[in-house]
Amino acid sequence: MSTMSQKHQDFVGELMGDKPVTALSGISETLGKKLEEQGFNKAYVVLSQFLVLRKDSEMFTDWLKDASGANSRQAGSCAQCLKEWCDAFL
User: Fold this and answer.
1) Phi, psi (5° rounding) for residue 42?
2) Whole-number Cα distances in Å, 7 to 10, 51, 61, 71
């Protein structure tokens, strides 16, 4: 998949650890601030929401759009990033 961003490749290619929410593909500083205000300050906290929604990309993108104001492309990029990370590490 050559259309993956470097940010996406970097995230999917290594353990999550204590990365900030803005390390997620599709999450800009602006969206990150909105998520942080709701307690989603780390990538693993957003991952937990993805897992609570049973790794359902459609439900997750709807949640992310509501939670942060992300557009469909940004939310889809984040969902794909988390899905690929789960496939690699869970």
Assistant:
1) -125, 155
2) 5, 21, 19, 18
CATH of the domain at 80: 1.10.150.40
What pLDDT does 3 receive? 59
Angle at 33 between CA 27 and CA 37, to 5 degrees: 125
Mean of all residue pLDDT scores within the chain: 94
Evaluate whether residue 73 is within a structural domain: yes
Domain count, the chain: 1
Within a domain: 1: no
For the stretch 6-44, pLDDT in tens is 999 989 889 999 999 999 999 999 999 999 999 999 999
What are the residues whose beta carbons fall under 8 Å from the beta carbon of 59, sequence distance 6 or more? 53
Which residue type is seen at 88?
A
